[in-house]
Specification:
There is one protein chain. By secondary structure, the chain is mostly helical. It is built from ten helices and no strands. α7 packs antiparallel against α8 and α8 packs antiparallel against α9.
Length: 247
Amino acid sequence: MNNTFRSWKGKLHKHFKKYSNDIDYARSHPPNEKVFGDREISDWEWLCDNLYTDQAYQKRSKINTINRNKKKYNHCGGSCPFTKHMEAEEQKGKNVTYVENWGLMHQHRGSNGGVWINEEAERTGKNLIEELIKTKQQLAESEDTPFEDVVVPIPMQLDILAKELGTMKGKTIRGVGYGLKKERFCSSIPASTSNPTNAQLMRYTILLEERLTSLEGEKQPQPPIHDVDEEGGEEGEEDEDEDMDVF
């Protein structure tokens, strides 16, 4: 829902920018009914007068454009959360790590399955796997456990991701969606390196917290015209200049 709303906002702003050189014309020509629905033109005029022409909004929009241009790669996971992809792999009988899941989400699917989306994603993915193997080898040696029986604790997996991908405010790991943070762990669940059940419980804990964070975002105040009828697109379809919750 939150991504759909953001996508719709982006479409509105994108339409306005087509006529931004003539504000009067832009005000009198709202988006078509497919995008804008049966809303009053006064709603569109309000957006033009109070939002799209606001200097602070325009400044933030330009910053977002610059930030998006710095993005090295996208993922192939659509709007489905990072941990949901892990669950899908589990249903196939595969017990993938967070690191391996990142790699799967940055490789083409279908007939091109297994091919990295670009060279930068491939470099990052190989660095992550190399660090995962190194960590696994160290654990095997320190605990005198066969390499194939070692399960790298989730806090260590997240630390590997954080070091390679970087973190944002609140230690949230870049590029893996809601909820995944550096140093995240569940103190009530032992982080055994050879117990996959513990690892699964920790993944479910993170999934629940991820969903809670998403729901909290959806509860934020919406604009007066938020009841859009159009079915929005997946994550990444919103206007490239639009990435701020202004309402």
